[in-house]
Specification:
GO terms for molecular function: GTP binding; GTPase activity. Keywords: GTP-binding, Membrane, Mitochondrion, Mitochondrion inner membrane, Nucleotide-binding, Transit peptide. It is found in: Mitochondrion inner membrane. This is Mitochondrial GTPase 1. By secondary structure, this protein is an alpha/beta fold. It folds into 2 domains: 100 residues, no CATH class; 176 residues, Rossmann fold (3-Layer(aba) Sandwich), CATH 3.40.50.300. 40% of the residues lie in helices and 13% in strands. Helix 9 packs across helix 12 and helix 11 packs across helix 12. Bound molecules: guanosine-5'-triphosphate and magnesium ion (MG). Guanosine-5'-triphosphate binds next to helix 6. The site of magnesium ion has 5 residues, from helix 6.
Length: 323
Amino acid sequence: MVRLARVLLASAELNFRQRFAFTNKDVLRWFPGHMGKGMKQIQTNLRSVDLVLEVHDARIPASGRNPQFEYSLGGVRPHILVLNKSDLADLTKASAIVSHLKQNEGVTDVLFTNAKDPFCKGMKRLIPTITRLIGESDRHNRSELKEFCVMVIGVPNVGKSSIINSLRNKCLRKSSAAPVGAVAGITRSVGMKIKVSQEPLIYILDSPGILNPRVDDVETGFKLALCSSMLDHLVGIRNIADYLLYFLNKRQCFTYVEKLNLKEPTDSIDFLLVSAAISSGKTVKRRDMATGGYTTVPDLDRAATTFVSMFRSGGFGKFLLDD
Ligand SMILES: Nc1nc2c(ncn2[C@@H]2O[C@H](COP(=O)(O)OP(=O)(O)OP(=O)(O)O)[C@@H](O)[C@H]2O)c(=O)[nH]1
Ligand SMILES: [Mg+2]
């Protein structure tokens, strides 16, 4: 408590960056071949689905969604926007988020979910909402079919496959069928239909995470990177850590000081990483070109990975990255 008071006092006197200098523009251009192929597969499969379930990260509800989905899928099927990882998001303004999405993005149905908790309200509402929307829709060429088919889409790593597995585990008590992983790009193509419910009979098609081939602006790219929707090495883990530090300071969230064993808040990522690496004993041996011997230096990449991972697992609290 005393330490927190000291940190807050120190922070009042600090003059931190008001803007982030986005130097790495690589975040705008990550579109590997499987994404282009995946988009075509999604379009091809659209004829055989009754509803599109778009999954996005609840920490960035207003940015980072792929506008291509809207253009390509064109509202021809009922659509639900699932804001997943709600356990990591600050949802005190959930109703304002929903209003924003309804008014500005034309989204009609929004659910907040935590795919890791099948008992969360949003997960429980998924099957009834899917059933209701399909029931209210004109199923075109599919009206004779008893089974419902849903396609899940979204940017990478937002929990698309986890949601499918969670529904399947909960509703059918069957083991997971979609591969899941902590890095972007685990699902590489549209796969086979996965059964998730018997009554009503619902199948879901998983799809690879697809980014906008040209992300709107660099800050959106950094937000996606911080939420693991891009591979860390493309952006650079130290760049991601720097953006995180800027963000936490801007929000006056100084819990990182205690967690990383620092003396006080800082605006310098280099200072933070060196201090954190030293205090946690993260070092690496480097060849000294002059002497030919080895010297031990702080391992800044490992320190940056730890710092960013703490944020990703909720170690600094729940956040909305969008204003
Ligand atoms: N905290 C939290 N983690 C989640 C949640 N849903 C999924 N995850 C984790 O997020 C990571 C990505 O999950 P996936 O289901 O593979 O995501 P995806 O959207 O299918 O990813 P790609 O196939 O790579 O596009 C995994 O480590 C999951 O355990 C959630 O609601 N909360
Ligand atoms: Mg997946």
